[in-house]
Amino acid sequence: MKRAHIALLTLLLPVGLLAGCSKSSDDTGDNGARVEFGVESVQSTDGEFPPGSDRTKLVNDTVTALTKRLTAAGLKDPKVEAGKNGDSVTVSTASGNGGDITELASAGTLRIRPVLFSAPKYTGPGAEEGDVLDVELRQANPETPQAEMARRAQMLKCDDKDALVGRDDPASLLVTCSADGKTVYSLGPAVVDGTGIAKATAAQAGKKWAVNLDYKPEAQSALGAYTGANDGKQVAFLVDTRVVDAPKIAPGAQYNAVAPDGFTQAQAKNLATALGSGPLPVRLVKK
Question: How many whole angstroms separate alpha carbon 12 and alpha carbon 212?
């Protein structure tokens, strides 16, 4: 069985670490910050809360979970408050910065999926004017022909913000982009999802920082069985729907994604905290 301890070394800064937004000067420093988020459902592709869903409970559970994340990350005096109608969440801290808060408020979802198709994103004539794939077509049942999913993948624009963050179905096929926006993918149902993470920790690897992941027994078994039966194929590691690496499976190999410039200690710790705490019940979108 392959090793299920995976070092995930990744730089998500080109798309904004986990959150799909670049940092501004307001997001730097270490004197604390205040950030307001809009609230969207993770149960629908349009972000609307389905009839019968308990929005108040979901938002309150998110407030509790995010408070724990901020505390675990070492930010001082974290305060997380829901808006009167449950349509916003405001976060303030006495240390860290807006970038830290935004990173920790990300969905925090990890998936490991088989790669069915990949190609460089089209950047030729008419690329910006071409069709844009509706978010509802980003996923499909596993019986959908691979050629159709490859066609859909090639229609992706790979924008910074992904409407599927926090609400992709691990049991369905998915078309998505790489974290740097340069590659499009069609992917199979998840072999491992975020519920299989037992522990995530930040650690220094040479001059870079890494997030080390340990898996629960069921996830360890599933990953080992899949990689053991699929030598030579690619497997994709996704954080919040974006592919951070898609290595070829090889006997005895460790599967990790290495960024050319690495990321900071704070970013590694934020990512480890987000992944290790499990996904948030609702999606928070920075205002």
Answer: 16
